Amino acid sequence: MTFLQFAYNNVTRNKRAYLAFFLSSAFSVLIFFTFAMFLFHPALKEGYLNNIARKGLTAAEWMIFVFSFLFVLYSVNAFLKSRNKEFGILLMQGITPGQLRKLITAENMIIGVMSIAAGIIGGVIFSKTFFTVGAYILEMDALPLYMPWKALGITAGGFLLLFFLLSQFTILFVRSNTVIKLIKGTDKVKPEPKPSVLLSLFGIACLCGGYGMVLKGNVHGTEPFIILLLTVIGTYFFFSQSSIWILRALKKWKAFYLRGKNVIWVSDLVYRLKDNARLFFIVSIISAVAFTATGVLAMYKATVGAEESAYEMEYISYSDNPKEQTHLKDIEHELKSHGFAYKKDKIDVSYIRYQEGDTVPPVYMISKSDVSKYFHVKLNGLKNDEAVYFPGTYDRNLKNVAPDQLKLLNQKGEPSDQKLSVKEVKKPLISLNAIIAVNDQTFDQFKSLGDKASLYGYSYDHWKDSLEFSQSLKNEIYGNYIDVHSDFASKAGTYYDTVQLPSLSLFIGLFIAIVFFVAAASFLYFRLFTDLDEDRERYRSLAKIGLSEREMSQSVTIQLAILFFFPFVIAVMHTLFALRTMAVEGYSDIAGPLSLTIGGFFIFQLLFFLAVRSSYLKKMNK
User: Fold this and answer.
1) Among 188, 208, 243, where does a domain finish?
2) Quick one: which of 94, 105, 334, 394 has the fewest CB in 10 Å?
3) Could you tell me which residue, 444 or 104, shows the higher pLDDT?
4) Does residue 564 lie within any of the structural domains?
């Protein structure tokens, strides 16, 4: 038997240990490869949205690769720990450190090549589905299949290098131990964990402090950083100290602790929580990041839709604008040169501000007759002191977008005696700003309070095709945002900001979150099967004194359920409080996206738990 055959047999005969590592690594390769195929697709070479998509996909590729590095490092280290006795025996039999290094490198490269091959094959199989879903979400034209040589080369080369470098890192973990330590493995008698009451209370206090800051609302400035710091510190001490303290307190509750199998799983769980405290901390934080990122993106996409304004392009010029005619010529030149037949409207408005607490939001005041003429909205029975409020497309989903009464300011920004009662809040008319419509008499009376301005509206078909030059016009009009006397918006730009960009973020973020969550679940799998031999011995001893197979299964199920869902519940709590800030900021619908996000991850976690439980019990019953 050659040395390479020896390494191959070690891999194939340790399928149990390598299975989760192989599948998770293959999944990371699959996501990386499909993103790379999307990134280097010939159809994404041109276009404003395509450029942004390429940048987002490139950032996602780096995130996946860096996380894969850390994930594989942890996984290989867990495998080596479970094989300490094997390495100790090999060293006693005369294997040299160089040969041991060669063995570990060969094993890692074998599993790495298999993962890369499986990931690439899976990526090719699912590429058409991935392209279809991606093009649908991003609202792009259908993406045809192509031969992704560049994506294949980068994926294979990058992950081969990753597995090789990590095999060199992991050798250090083995070489740092003596032969005696390796042979002893994890057979040392563990003392009962004794948590610190002070640190236990400190961890709970940190979590309560972070949650309390969220509940009081108005999270601004340095508060998000403080909340994040308190949550991370509190989570670590909660798993490493508080949870063990709670279990030890539970052991003192004799009526519960000495009832049936409770004495077994509670005692075992104390040791498991202590041994896996760092792992649970990592899993809960990673899961919370995945839940929160996916929830925020889903919430934003659900609440900020593609509400269309009346015009495909809007330009407003204030009274002191010296570049009005230049900008209008540029807008019309771009529309004509790109083949758009347009209709142009000019509306007289008054740019006015009103007092709302400590803020002075701006609105455009328009007469009732102009609203009817240009926007085809009839406003009946509008009295002299009444107004109809039309929010801008960007703030239409926020709560309480209009006060009951508008206290108007004069041009100097001072309070005036003029007030308007908001009769009704309707759908947006334009993207640039909110509009208040008043009857013609009130408009003539109040328009001098604000700055006289002209709103130019351009209507044309196929507006989605105007994104690229619309963004160029926007950059030209605003320049460096110094001494600006006009405002500009396009339906294509608004649609890009409120629909396409969130869709792109959701598309990328969802897959990254799934990678994170799969890795988090795999961490638990690795740890369980690392301790399998030790658990076998313990339950074999308990069986000799009368523990039945059914009682063992129930005890294992309770422990596994706590190990799988305890970090999950903490991550869900973190997510709920994180997304609570979105509700405070005014997003009207968080329950739907949040339920969908948490529900999806819970189903995945439940299926993974059932599969691991079945496999674990089979191994235990042997």
Assistant:
1) 188
2) 94
3) 444
4) no
Between CA 280 and CA 334 the distance in angstroms is 57
Q: Which residue has the higher pLDDT, 394 or 226?
A: 226
DSSP string, 132-156: HHHHHHHT-PPPPP---HHHHHHHH
For residue 531, being part of any structural domain is answered with no
Q: Which of 172, 188, 204 is the last residue of a domain?
A: 188
617 touches 322 (CB < 8 A): no
Q: Which two tokens stand for residue 31?
A: 């996501």
Of the candidates 210, 261, 264, 265, which has an alpha carbon nearest to the alpha carbon of residue 236? 210
Q: Could you tell me if residue 64 is inside a domain? A: yes
Q: How many structural domains are present in the chain?
A: 2
Instruction: Convert the pLDDT of each residue in 329-349 to its tens digit.
Output: 999 999 999 999 999 999 999
**From its phi and psi, is residue 470 left (phi > 0), alpha (psi between -120 and 50) or beta?**
alpha
Which value, to the nearest 10 degrees, does the dihedral of the CA atoms of residues 229, 235, 236, 241 take?
130
Answer whether residue 467 is part of any domain.
no
pTM: 0.67
Instruction: Single out the residue of 524, 520, 564, 532 nearest to residue 16, CA to CA.
Output: 532
162 versus 511: the higher-pLDDT residue is: 162
For 268-280, what is each residue's pLDDT tens digit?
Answer: 667 677 767 777 8
In which domain, by residue range, is 155 found? 1-188
Query: How high is the pLDDT of residue 400?
Result: 46
Residue 356 DSSP label: B
